[in-house]
Design goal:
Elements (H helix, E strand, L loop, with lengths): L2 H11 L1 H18 L13 H13 L3 H9 L2 E8 L11 E5 L10 H8 L7 E4 L12 H17 L4 E4 L9 H8 L2 E2 L3 E7 L2 E7 L12 H4 L8 E4 L6 H6 L4 E4 L28 E5 L2 E5 L17 E8 L10
Parallel strand pairs: 1-12, 2-3, 3-4, 4-5, 7-8, 8-9, 9-11
Antiparallel strand pairs: 2-12, 6-7, 10-11
Helix pairs in contact: 1-2, 5-6
The chain binds fe (ii) ion (FE2).
The site of fe (ii) ion has 9 residues, from loops.
Length: 325
């Protein structure tokens, strides 16, 4: 990230939020090298990850877990938004979360191939591009260059939008934007068709950085205009509902990533009720979807929790439910 990038980030986020985020990034590095304090994040604790990898290896299921992690599913989720403008009826939004792209060589191309036969009008990436919570972005950038142009080729109508997750430093923004994904830093973008508008609001991470800001992007949006929220974790649901969002798209939990045969997730990894950690849900009339994620973190393995890309199909009329594939 050069001086020009930094100036642009100051203009976009404001000194207060950018300063808070940079301070939190330094705190995170200090915590990881044992000099600071911070929240417990299981993927950061090297000894636990080493034990988990060893356990998978000695039990002979490591290869099985890796195969599961590459078994990317594409699901459709029908969302009824009564305020959706008629010109946007049937809009298809591909939702990719928790890509952790440097977790497996060629993952970007693997995702692009999986989506090759699917159609969508926009793509949204809800954070976590890096496998670890610190470290360089070279391999992430390489995988993004394989993935984002392919997403843009599908999403020609409205484009590709991204937000940051708790694995992403602010330095990730130029990496994403150079690959072709417009990154929303407490910002809003209008998806327009004819004279109709649907607003997409992307907030910064709430889970670790806490530098999300509802007020700033909402200032430019008319009071009753339909709006969709992109935020990395399902941890500000009541706030989003109070701000009039009709759809909350999120990830972070990986749906548990390593689950029991009945699908129960021993680690939910988010400060929210269990009903919000995977799949479709609703809160006070606001609908939401928590993606199980595309990649994996900590260890590149999944059990009883397949990775997914979800194509949300927005409609004004209820023709029956949901997650069809
Ligand atoms: Fe993640």
């Amino acid at each position: 990230m050069d001086e020009h990038d930094l100036i642009r980030l100051r203009e976009r986020m404001g000194d207060q939020y950018l300063g808070r985020r940079l301070h939190a990034q330094v705190t995170r590095i200090l915590y990881l090298v044992g000099q600071g304090r911070g929240g417990f994040h299981y993927e950061n604790v090297e000894v636990i990850m080493r034990l988990l990898k060893l356990l998978l290896r000695v039990s002979g299921i490591q290869a099985h877990g890796k195969r599961n992690a590459l078994d990317l599913q594409v699901r459709e989720n029908r969302v009824v938004l009564p305020t959706l403008p008629p010109a946007l009826e049937g809009i298809r939004i591909a939702h990719l979360s928790d890509l952790h792209l440097d977790g497996y060589p060629g993952l970007g191309q693997h995702i692009a191939h999986t989506l090759a036969d699917h159609t969508f009008d926009a793509a949204v990436l809800t954070g976590d591009y890096r496998f670890y919570t610190t470290g360089h972005y070279d391999r992430v950038a390489q995988e993004l260059r394989a993935l984002v142009p392919a997403l843009r080729a599908h999403a020609q109508r409205f484009g590709v939008y991204a937000i940051l997750g708790n694995h992403d430093f602010i330095e990730m923004v130029p990496v994403l934007e150079n690959a072709g994904a417009q990154t929303l830093l407490n910002e809003a973008v209008a998806l327009t068709a004819d004279d109709a508008t649907l607003w997409l609001v992307g907030l910064d991470d709430a889970h670790y950085y806490g530098t999300y800001d509802f007020a700033k992007p909402l200032r430019g949006i008319p009071p009753n205009a339909p709006r969709i929220l992109l935020i990395h974790s399902p941890e500000v649901i009541p706030e989003a509902s109070a701000h009039g969002f009709e759809l909350y798209l999120t990830g972070h939990t990986h749906g548990g990533q390593i689950c029991l045969p009945n699908g129960f997730a021993p680690l939910k990894n988010a400060h929210c009720a269990r009903r919000y950690i995977a799949g479709a849900w609703s809160f006070n009339g606001m609908q939401g979807y928590t993606s199980r994620g595309v990649g994996a973190s900590g260890v590149f393995a999944r059990f009883f929790c397949p990775p997914e890309v979800v194509i949300h199909i927005l409609t004004r009329a209820d023709l029956g439910h949901s997650e069809t594939r």
